[in-house]
Amino acid sequence: MPGHRLEQLCHDHGLRFTEHRRMVLEVLDASTDHPAASEIHRRAAVGHSISVSTVYRILKTLSAAGLVVRRDFGDGKARYESVTRRHDHLVDVRSGAIVEFDEAALQPIIESIAARLGYRLIDYRLELLAEARGAVIDRS
Amino acid sequence: MPGHRLEQLCHDHGLRFTEHRRMVLEVLDASTDHPAASEIHRRAAVGHSISVSTVYRILKTLSAAGLVVRRDFGDGKARYESVTRRHDHLVDVRSGAIVEFDEAALQPIIESIAARLGYRLIDYRLELLAEARGAVIDRS
DNA sequence: CTAAATGCAAATCATTTGCAAAGAG
DNA sequence: CTCTTTGCAAATGATTTGCATTTAG
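^ inputs. structure came back:
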């Protein structure tokens, strides 16, 4: 029963485990992209029933609990990913393509920055804006 | 005439220099916080006339040109800062307070990450989520 | 049983857009 | 003069909310 792991996860964070929360978590665990709320609803609704407002409410709850990470790539809608899939991103400013990467070496450096400021790091969001090497640069 | 610098800046980026663009740039250059579009409009409108839609259009243009940096702190509205004030941020998840910092050592590390992925870094956004040291942690 | 979660539809809020008038180069 | 920018008001689109109903613990 794959649901047990997710149920435990919710309980560990003091959240009730509902059918709908399971659906949303499963969608995010199965997604390799970064779906927005409407897309998560679309995927979760396949064969099931769930309202969009419920998806929004669940995403807000799960984000607050840290089970889900909310991202913004500047296209007007928030995107989400499961913490288990958490990683950083590089956005190709020409094509809009998103490249994921995971640079473990950054964690300690960033932690020390927070510490120096008198804080304990909880999480961080890093987004690189870049263009493919060799791209023609318009200096007109 | 302080307007000359801004005029040059616009011209260098192929943008027409208008009274309204000057107003928005001046507001951002004078702001130490991270005003959202509506707040920028409010500040620019003091003693002048400018419509909100114009502020939005200008911010989009200036962002695309790289004269202004668009940020998202997760409260539903985009925030802006002048490139000349560009820096990274730490968000105190308890109070919502934003602490600015500038860690020069990060730049080369992040550039190398982009390079490794086959890209040339244009810019990056780093946001730390943290809690004050010594804050009581609720492990209920 | 009781507090929390959900559906539905209406409400909000930020941001965008169509079109005619005003302005920059 | 020609192309771009701006105003205004209406349109869009994402996200939120009130309230009655259902469900988890």
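Strands of chain A lie at 68-72, 78-82, 88-92, 98-101, 119-132. Residues 64 and 123 of chain A are 12 Å apart (CA to CA).
thumbs up if we can close this ticket
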